[in-house]
Amino acid sequence: MWTLLHGFTGSPQSYSRIVRHLGVEQRPLVPALTGHGSGWRGRAADSFEGEVSRLLALLADVEGPRLLCGYSLGARVALGMLSRAPSMFDGAVLIGLHPGLEAASVRDERRVLDARRARLLREHGLAAFIKAWEALPLFATQRALPPNLLAEQRECRLMHDPEGLARSLEVLGLAEMPNYRAAMASLEVPITLITGSLDTKFSKMAKELAAQNDHIQFELIDGVGHNVLLEAHSVVAAELKRVTELALR
To answer: How far is it, in rounded angstroms, from Cα 172 to Cα 168?
Structure first.
């Protein structure tokens, strides 16, 4: 059974087209991450590792094969789950993964940036934040997507509570995430790393991570950027099907 983890400002709905393409009898588990969705206060973790524990607990009774997919923030949390409990999983697909910051100075800089973003959410509201978020260079490739697809994504983002997203930055932000590079190098779970060819920063990281572990393969999707989940959903669905078939053999 698949567990699918969305990105920051996303929701379980982010995987709706993927789920339709999968065509499996067993519906995936698609939880909302801390700070996301209307009921976030009742299930919020107070640390990155706390979120990892919360999600692993949700999977305790899930039938095998246990398969894990995450995009961006979801990929980072998924890596935490794989590092903590590798024996629980039979395969994983991680899209736009950052394995964690190495230098303390860089971590401090990121914490300052995320604090500024949280302040924007609290002081100026959700619409102002989403406008700034969508203008980031990381998402520039999305401007070529059909307007209805972008409108659907924006509608999903605007359903969040600004305090929830601020809390997500404070709990699940990159500065709060452990550096999982060493753990990832020793994982024996089959992992596929996916990035878009136009997302050069994350593609470089994925290539380096795959080179360090024979259980990790890297798939580069031509002509798309960071959000492969949105920009090339059929490619993601095909990879999930392939991993499912391998796990069932």
So the answer is: 5
DSSP state of 102: -
User: What's the rounded Cα separation, in Å, for the pair 87 and 175?
Assistant: 27
Asked if omega into 86 is within 30° of 0 (cis), the reply is: no
Give the three-state DSSP class for 69: strand
Structure tokens at 228: 């492969």
Whether the Cβ atoms of residue 9 and residue 130 lie closer than 8 Å to each other: yes
* pLDDT per position as a tens digit, 107-136: 999 999 999 999 999 999 999 999 999 999
Contact status, residue 14 vs residue 7, Cβ threshold 8 Å: yes
Q: How far apart are CA 249 and CA 122, in angstroms?
A: 50
- Could you tell me the sign of the dihedral formed by the alpha carbons of 216, 220, 224, 230, in that order? negative
Residue 121 in tokens: 């959410």
> Is the distance from CB of 24 to CB of 63 less than 8 angstroms?
no
Show me where the domains of the chain are located: 2-248
* CATH among 1.25.40.10, 2.20.25.420, 3.40.50.1820, 3.30.930.10 for 2-248: 3.40.50.1820
Q: Read off the pLDDT of residues 199-216 as tens digits, 9 standing for 90 and up.
A: 999 999 999 999 999 999
> pLDDT for 16-54, tens place per residue?
989 888 765 568 999 999 999 989 999 899 999 999 999
Q: How far is CA 165 from the centre of its chain?
A: 15
Residue-wise DSSP of 223-235: T--S-HHHH-HHH
Strand-pair category, 2-5 with 67-71? parallel
What is the pTM (predicted TM-score) of this model? Answer: 0.96
Per-residue burial over 30-56, b = 16 or more CB atoms within 10 Å of its CB, e = otherwise: bbbbbbbbeebeebbbeebeebbebbe
